[in-house]
Amino acid sequence: MRIATFAALFLSGGLFTVRAQQAGMQNVWDIHNTLAAIALHADRLAPFVDQIHPENWTGAPEGYVAQAKTCRNEVRAVAAAVKKLSQNPEKLTDALETLFQIRTEEAMLASLGEGLRKYSSPPMADLLNAGVAENAANRDRLQQYILELATAREQEFRVADEEAQRCRQSLSRQPSQQQPIRPKQEKN
After folding, report:
1. What is the CATH number of the domain that holds 123?
2. pTM value?
3. Exposure check for the chain: N or C terminus, fewer CB within 10 A?
4. Residue 51, SS3?
């Protein structure tokens, strides 16, 4: 009975995954391409960010120096997170962490770009903003994939829970297989 229950859960989860894939969820090949593009973008953006030196800006607050260092680290962290995620793209926690890192990187670079525009070079700030914007479509595809993945996982858990409830009900209706214990009769 337990084997049958496990098989039913396994098959229903597998069938749902196939249905979700057919219903519009990105396949693994597509998400690998998206992740490769995001990693390549981060790798190309890193040398550009390395050229930003707020310590040489006239009148800029010291906070920009620390922010530039953080941006350099964030760009490299995004590249590493994306490469890690590409090894197991169906791991929802890693996917969410990667998306959050990309969003953080974009916000930090936007702020650094404002300082770059104000205290150093508006054309270089435009290049930085354009470089960050290049990744928007890939980020949006990753975000859509994560939404689809989360929805699929929720459906899988719902199906598994319903099947477990059905099995519990089925088991509770079955008569006990143990023989009733009869008291021993005393010999006189």
Report:
1. 1.20.1440
2. 0.73
3. C
4. coil
